[in-house]
Amino acid sequence: MWNVPGGEGPSPAAPGAERGRQVASVLGFVLGDERGAEEFEGELARQVQDWNLLKGIGSQVVLRSLDRPGAYLHLAFWQSPEHLFGVVRSDAACARLDRFGKLAAVEPGQAVTVGLLGGGPALAGAAHALLVRVTPAGPAAAFEAQFGALAGPFLYDPGCGGCLLLRYTVEPRAYLGLIWWHGATAYDTATRGDRFLECERRLRHLASGLAFERVRTVGGRS
How far apart are CA 127 and CA 55, in angstroms? Predict the structure, then answer.
């Protein structure tokens, strides 16, 4: 695990760090009809507001895909698995998922934080981000270290807020990476440059599956 503010590069995890990793709820949505986007985003905003009042909640972010019309992702970070499970198994959460299900296809998931560079998963103020979905071809530990080494240099660029790597708990070979910027110009400059092309090339060498998705923050709270 790496956790280095300021973009200095990854550092090894301390003994017992696995127990201290943040857990995240990962809710993916795809609208059946984009005309319902306003109602759907309102329901998501109410969930963010309600969860902000709960014990154990950290930051939250709602992302809207720029590559898949009608697709959204809600990430919420919790202090412990117990806090997360207590919420997602509640009657209120089940009722809200039923309401979401009338507007969109819902894909729930859970993950643990593998690595973090920059200011932390406080993404609500970030304007543009890049999702990276990866299935490594080789050892997980080697991939996790390489992802940090490849993503870390972006933090030296103006406007980059940080990068995060999550490992799914149900599918431990599946990862979700996120790199975010505080403006469209900074995002465009970074993702069109030679550094990004080299990062993509090396990630493809490490992965059996790799997909990039442009997203924009539309809600959340730091």
Answer: 27
In 3D space, the residue among 116, 99, 124 whose CA is nearest the CA of residue 29 turns out to be 99
Q: Which amino acid is at 183?
A: G
Quick check: 212 pLDDT over 50? yes
Q: Residue 174: its pLDDT value, please?
A: 95
Tokens of 200: 């993509």
Between CA 179 and CA 131 the distance in angstroms is: 7
What average pLDDT does this structure show over 101-106?
91
| pTM for the whole structure | 0.86
Q: How far apart are CA 172 and CA 147, in angstroms?
A: 16
Nearest residue to 44 (alpha-carbon basis) of 74, 2, 23: 74
Q: 219 has which bridge partners?
A: 62
- Which are the contacts of 42, defined by CB distance < 8 A and separation ≥ 6? none
Model pLDDT for residues 143-194, shown as the tens digit of each residue: 998 898 888 888 888 888 889 999 999 888 999 999 999 888 999 999 998 9
Instruction: Please list the alpha-helical segments (H only) found in 56-90.
Output: 81-88
Tokens at 196, concatenated: 């990004």
A 10 A CB-CB count for 6 gives: 11
Q: How far apart are CA 205 and CA 90, in angstroms?
A: 42
Distance between CA atoms of residues 209 and 206, nearest Å: 9
How far apart are alpha carbons 95 and 141 in whole angstroms?
38
pLDDT for the residue numbered 111:
96
Who contacts 100 (Cβ-Cβ below 8 Å, separation ≥6)? 29, 40, 43, 106
